[in-house]
Amino acid sequence: MKKLIVIMICLLAWGAQQPTAAQCGIENTAFKGGEFLSYDLYFNWKFVWWKVGTASMSTVKSHRDGAPAYRSSLITRGNNKLDNMFVMRDTLLCYTNDDLAPLYFRKGAREGKRYYVDEVWYTYPNSNCHMLMHEITSSGDHLWKEAEYKDCIYDMMSIYLRARNFDSSNLRTGEKIPLPIVDGMKVANAWLTYNGKTTIKMKNNDHKYRCLIFSFMQREDGNTKELIRFYITDDKNHVPVRLDMFLSFGSAKAYLTGFKGLRNPMASREE
Fold first, then answer.
1. pLDDT in tens, 198-213
2. Nearest to 7 by CA among 183, 258, 178
3. N or C end: fewer C-beta atoms under 10 angstroms in the chain?
4. What is the pTM for the complete model shown?
């Protein structure tokens, strides 16, 4: 379940470009430093939806290696009900430059009795995207790997920041958007499918939002499956307000509960 809740941060992405730090970035018009989002997490158990935890995300202005940067973090926490089935404690962190090109990523995750850490450092030599990857396994082993690609590669956090700035006006229903993303020590074969527009009502209040619908798809071992379906505001913020997650042992949902520090008016909300 943790892995899929983390995937919520991968919402919306565009295809890769030939990389330099500048070319792997994008003009940011969707958010500003000081934005905070919060979510309630629900799990379906025997046809009943139980609240099982919370998630929160913050993006602030910072510095990395002496240069201006965005620092974004995501924290997910299960409550006592979920702990009885599966302990969930994740903390994700990323740094990007002002154009949202990734610089550093870290994920510390406790999943059940297992705790591990993934890290990625990015550089851009010779117009390539170079990644130094580090994993601390649940047994305490330190694994290192280097990889270099001609295409831009992102992580679970930086792809989210970049993708919130896409232009959906020319998308067609059913259109697929490639999603090159580093997951642990490998690059995942994944993509997004655009599924049109709808209006949804929140579970925890009476707010309604006009939304764009996307499905996050992944192909592994010859099989293609939908991991998550998410709904983002059809306005300049592109904030995820609901996520439907399809798990091997059931289904889960995340609902937006609060926000502050948005860059643009929440024009998609209907009173």
1. 999 988 778 899 999 9
2. 183
3. C
4. 0.82
